[in-house]
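Objective 1b of the project was to move from sequence-level analysis to a structural picture of ligand recognition. The entry below was assembled by the postdoctoral researcher (A.K.) and checked by the PI before modelling. It contains the amino acid sequence of the target and the SMILES of the bound compound, calcium ion.
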Amino acid sequence: MKKYYIILLITMFSCSLLYAQLPNGNFNAATCTGNGAFATCVPNWIQSHGSPSINSSTNPYAWMWSYSARGEGILANFNFQQGVTYSITCRIRTRDYNIQTIRDNALLNIMAANGIVSQTSSSPIPTPTSSQNIISNLFNNYTNLVWTNITTTFTADANYSQFWVHPRMNLPAQPDGNGNTRQSELSIDDITITVVSPPCDDCYSFQPKPGQEYIVSGWVKEEHATQVMSYSSSYIRVNFYNQQGNIIQSTDFNPVGHIIDSWQRIADTFIIPGNATDIEVELRNDNQNIVSYFDDIRVHPFNSNMKTYVYDPQTQWLMAEQDENNYSTFYEYDNQGGLVRIKKETEKGIYTVQETRSSHTKNN
Ligand SMILES: [Ca+2]
Ligand SMILES: [Ca+2]
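Corresponding predicted holo structure:
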């Protein structure tokens, strides 16, 4: 409500609006195969250590090895949010060469992590600054050289930005009885990560969708020494980010129309780009020499109506409501709480639409 509330200058709020997906979890977007493929040609993925392979005849998958606490691992960008529960599916294939000491010592590790610095050296296996196990199972849980489907749920105990898969065997390569020594080996494919439950019941009740149209609106006021016809320094900027955290589209929404009681309206539409995962709304003032104010910022689907209400925090009286075009109706009261005046804001100005006189009889 413009009359009572002032939101000042340049503020910024950002919300994670769309459920994150793991791009290229099936590795089919890889543009090369073989040893070291993750260094160059697997979108959204890189090696955490060593030179993991993309193996493929027709369906690409990732392949890694480990022994002596060395080996290979793969790393993807993924934003795990604290308190959110995820369902993770994949298919894995272990190779233990039918050697029980490998089965009893090699681990399949799938983790959420922060701070892993990618290296092409196979040694040592890197240590994240923080991490949480999603799966940490001995190879003994799986059958040698058989693809196994895995489904698990995982609740993040902190925010993590990395998804990490690697085998780990701290023992050296093990004799197979035929004069060879053998490492532990891991293949993985078809990784999906989906949100099972957000951290609160209503925190994701507003879930903008890529490809859909939305209305952004708000009101701007600038303090000028002399009267102006339009405000030119203050505007709303909407930024769209992709999974990698890069801005893929940025749109400015300027105030237009009459200045009403020193406020000018912003009202426009935008379509969320198909590959957007986050939206950021900035309230901007590009002129350091003037003060500007923002109020009644709203974002809602184009195919919807929105009404918002302003209540006095002390008396709980309804002070104003904003209609589907973000124009206000103001309610004014006497000291007893009797409604005395209703004023309506239109594109031409503010009009009194109802005036009431009431009297209170005193009983002596
Ligand atoms: Ca695949
Ligand atoms: Ca390799």
